[in-house]
From TrEMBL:
This is MFS transporter. Keywords: Membrane, Nitrate assimilation, Transmembrane, Transmembrane helix. It is found in: Membrane. Gene3D superfamilies: MFS general substrate transporter like domains (1.20.1250.20). It comes from the Archaea. GO terms for biological process: nitrate assimilation. Belongs to the major facilitator superfamily. Nitrate/nitrite porter (TC 2.A.1.8) family. The lineage of its organism: Archaea, Methanobacteriati, Methanobacteriota, Stenosarchaea group, Halobacteria. The chain crosses the membrane at residues 12-34, 40-60, 72-92, 98-119, 131-153, 173-191, 220-244, 256-281, 302-321, 327-350, 362-381, 393-412. InterPro entries: MFS, MFS_dom, MFS_trans_sf, NO3_transporter. One of its GO terms (molecular function) is nitrate transmembrane transporter activity. Pfam families: MFS_1 (PF07690). It comes from Halopelagius longus.
C-alpha cells in the first residue's frame, strides 16, 4: 500500500512536470512574435494566423493520443510525443525560410496533445473522491507552463542574446527547449507506470475499441463537456498565443518583456487557479451540496454551469477594460478571464474521469481535442480587420459562447444528466448510467 501511495504521487509529479514543459514548448513562440515578424516580414494578420496555427493539429492529435493512452498506457505515449516535439523544436531553430519554419512549428505545437495523456495517467492512479483535485493540480500547474514561457524565455533569451550556436534569441530558445523536451521524454519512459493495478490497466485497455470510442464520443455528457471546453480551454489557448501581441499593439507597449509579463498574468490565473475548480467540484459531489436548485442532485454539473457563465461575463469585462484605454485595467481584466477559464476547466475535468472511469483517455481526448478548436478560431476574431479595434473581439467571442452555455444547461437537467453517459446523439445502450452523482 505504501509503495502504491508513493508511486501515485510520483505519477502526479511526473505528469505535471511533463505537461508543464509541454505547454512551455507549445507557446514558446508567443514572446518572440515581434522579432520573428521582423525577420520573416510578417503582418499583424499573419501573426494572428501563426497563433491560430499552433492549435491546428491539436484536435485530431488529442483524440488519437487519448485513445492510445487507454490502449497502450500513458508513459509510452507521453515519451514519444515529448521526443519528436523536442527534435522538431531544435530543427525549427535552424529554419531559414518561413515556409519550413511554419511547418516545423506546426509539429512542435502538437506538444499540447500531452494534456489528455496526463489526464488519463492521473485518473489511473487516483480515487474518485479526490480525482477532481488531482486532475486540477496536474492541469493547473501544467497549464502554467505558458506563463513560464512568457516570463522565463524572454528573460533568459533576451534581445541581446549572444551564445553558442545562435546569435538570435528566439532560435536559441527553440533549440534549447527542444533539448530539454528530449531529456524529459527519456525520464517519463523510464519512471512512469501505467496504472495502480494490472486489473485496472487491463479494464482500460479492453475498453479501447473503435465501437466503444464512437459510443462515448457521442454521449450527451461528452458533447456538452467538449463544447464547454471550447469556451474554456480553447479560450485559454487563444489568449496565451495572442495577449502579448494585444498588449503590445493595442496599448503601444513596445517593450517585449513588459508585454509578455502582462500576458503572463492571464496564464498564471488560468493555470494555478485550476485546482480550485476541481476541488470545488469534488467538494460539492462529496458533501452533496446544491448551489443551483434547478439542477438539483447534479452537484458537479451545477459548479460547471456557474463557471461557464462566469467566462461569458468576464469576456464582456475584457472588452470594457480595453476600451478604457488603461493597460493596467486591461491586465486585471485578463487575470479575471484567466480565473474564469481555470474554474471551468477544473470543473470539466473533474467530471470527465468520474463519468467515464474506464474510458477516461478516450473521453479526455474528445473533450480536449474538440476544446482546442477555440484556440484556432478565436485569434482570428481578435485580429479581424472587420472589427473597429482590437478590444471588441472579446465581447464578440463571449456572445458566441452563449449557445454553448444553454446546451450545457439542457444536458444538466436532472432527468437528462442521469443518463448523459448512456443516451446520446447516436442512440443509447439502454443500460444504467455510470455518473458519480446518482
Amino acid at each position: 500500500m505504501g509503495l502504491i501511495r508513493m508511486t501515485k504521487w510520483r505519477t502526479l509529479l511526473l505528469a505535471t512536470v511533463g505537461f508543464n514543459f509541454s505547454f512551455l514548448v507549445w507557446f514558446s513562440f508567443a514572446p518572440f512574435t515581434g522579432p520573428m515578424a521582423e525577420e520573416f516580414g510578417l503582418s499583424l494578420g499573419e501573426i494572428g494566423v501563426l497563433a491560430s496555427a499552433a492549435i491546428w493539429l491539436a484536435p485530431f492529435g488529442r483524440i488519437l493520443t487519448g485513445w492510445l493512452s487507454d490502449k497502450y498506457g500513458a508513459p509510452s505515449v507521453f515519451a514519444i510525443v515529448l521526443a519528436y516535439v523536442g527534435v522538431f523544436s531544435m530543427a525549427s531553430a535552424f529554419a531559414q525560410s518561413y515556409a519550413v519554419f511554419f511547418v516545423e512549428r506546426l509539429v512542435v505545437a502538437t506538444a499540447g496533445i500531452t494534456f489528455v495523456v496526463g489526464i488519463q495517467h492521473v485518473s489511473e492512479w487516483f480515487d474518485e473522491e479526490n480525482l477532481g483535485t488531482a486532475e486540477g493540480v496536474y492541469a493547473g500547474v501544467g497549464n502554467a507552463g505558458a506563463a513560464g514561457g512568457a516570463l522565463v524565455l524572454p528573460r533568459v533569451f533576451g534581445p541581446e542574446w549572444s551564445g553558442p550556436l545562435f546569435q538570435t534569441n528566439w532560435r536559441a530558445a527553440f533549440f534549447y527547449t527542444g533539448v530539454v523536451s528530449v531529456l524529459l521524454a527519456a525520464t517519463y519512459y523510464l519512471l512512469g507506470e501505467a496504472a495502480a493495478t494490472e486489473e485496472r490497466r487491463q479494464a482500460t485497455a479492453e475498453s479501447a475499441t473503435l465501437k466503444q470510442w464512437v459510443h462515448t464520443a457521442t454521449r450527451y455528457g461528452t458533447v456538452a463537456l467538449a463544447l464547454a471546453y471550447v469556451m474554456s480551454f480553447g479560450l485559454e489557448l487563444s489568449m496565451n498565443g495572442w495577449l502579448a501581441t494585444y498588449y503590445r499593439e493595442a496599448f503601444d507597449t513596445n517593450n517585449l518583456v513588459l508585454a509578455s509579463t502582462f500576458a503572463a498574468t492571464f496564464s498564471v490565473a488560468a493555470g494555478l487557479l485550476r485546482p480550485i475548480g476541481g476541488y470545488v467540484s469534488d467538494y460539492l459531489a462529496r458533501e452533496e451540496k446544491n448551489i443551483l436548485p434547478v439542477f438539483e442532485g447534479r452537484y458537479r454539473e451545477q459548479w460547471t454551469f456557474v463557471a461557464l457563465s462566469f467566462i461569458v461575463v468576464a469576456m464582456g469585462v475584457m472588452t470594457l477594460a480595453g476600451l478604457s484605454g488603461d493597460v493596467l485595467i486591461a491586465v486585471a481584466a485578463g487575470f479575471l478571464v484567466g480565473m474564469s477559464c481555470a474554474f471551468a476547466e477544473g470543473a470539466i475535468f473533474a467530471q470527465v474521469p468520474a463519468m467515464f472511469p474506464n474510458s477516461s483517455g478516450a473521453v479526455a481526448g474528445v473533450v480536449g481535442g474538440v476544446g482546442t478548436v477555440g484556440g484556432i478560431v478565436y485569434p482570428l476574431v481578435y485580429s479581424s480587420a472587420l472589427l473597429p479595434n482590437l478590444h471588441v473581439g472579446y465581447a464578440v467571442v463571449g456572445a458566441v459562447m452563449v449557445p454553448i452555455v444553454l446546451l450545457n444547461a439542457w444536458v444538466y437537467r436532472p432527468h437528462v444528466a442521469s443518463r448523459a453517459t448512456v443516451d446520446g446523439f447516436l442512440g443509447s445502450t439502454g443500460g444504467p448510467t455510470t455518473t458519480d452523482d446518482d
